[in-house]
Write the structure tokens for this entry.
Amino acid sequence: MFSKLKQFKNLRDKAKTIQSALAEEKAEGSAAWGKVKISFDGNQKILAVAIDNELMQDKTKLEGYIKEAANDGLDKIQKILAGKMKDLGGLDLAQEMQGLMKKE
């Protein structure tokens, strides 16, 4: 029983390390030839939004550009995170967790 608790603690510590490393990653999505930019962190939170003043006249187009930039940024950060997870052994962590959850 004690060894399982220790294994869970080790897995939790490893997960926190991976989460911290992923949080440091950044990506930027853009649309309208760079006139709309949205920056994301590794937790897929928006850090910044920049919109060129010239686009403020047409709300419908601007809404589409924002959506396009957000999707572009999310695609980029997800690709970065997938590679980082592989490098950090995050997939191994999931398998280890499954192994601990199985009944002996």
Notes: The mean pLDDT is 85. The beta strands are 26-31, 36-41, 46-51. The two ends are 11 Å apart (CA to CA). Helices lie at 2-23, 59-88, 90-101.
